[in-house]
Amino acid sequence: MKSGGFDLPLASASSSLRKLRGDIDELILAAARQPSPSRRAALVAMHHQLRLLGQRVNAALGATHHPGPTNGAPQD
């Protein structure tokens, strides 16, 4: 089976996202223990970057061509 250069980046991204999730959890806990305007600003900036990543994935999903119906019903 030929991956076309998809499987390796997918595995790497999945691994990185799992680590990122843990890192973000630690940052959130640290910010909750000692709240400050600068820590809140850092979390807001991170949130913005995560939203941009989500938008890119959503755009890719919208651009992906799906041959045939996805719900099993015939198309008109």
Structure description:
It is a single chain. The chain is mostly helical and 76 residues long. It is built from two helices and no strands. The radius of gyration is 19 Å and the shape is elongated. It starts with 6 loop residues before the first helix and ends in a 13-residue tail after the last helix.
- The helical percent reads over 70%
Helix/strand order? HH
Number of strands: 0
Mean pLDDT: 88
Low-confidence stretches: none
Strand residue content:
under 5%
Largest beta-sheet details:
none
Radius of gyration: 19 Å
How many distinct helices? 2
Protein structure class: mainly alpha
**Terminus-to-terminus distance:** 33 Å
Molecular shape:
elongated
List keywords for this structure.
about 80 residues, about 0% strand, elongated
What's the short version?
This protein is mostly helical and 76 residues long.
Summarize the helices and strands and which ones pair or pack.
Layout: H1 7-33, H2 37-63
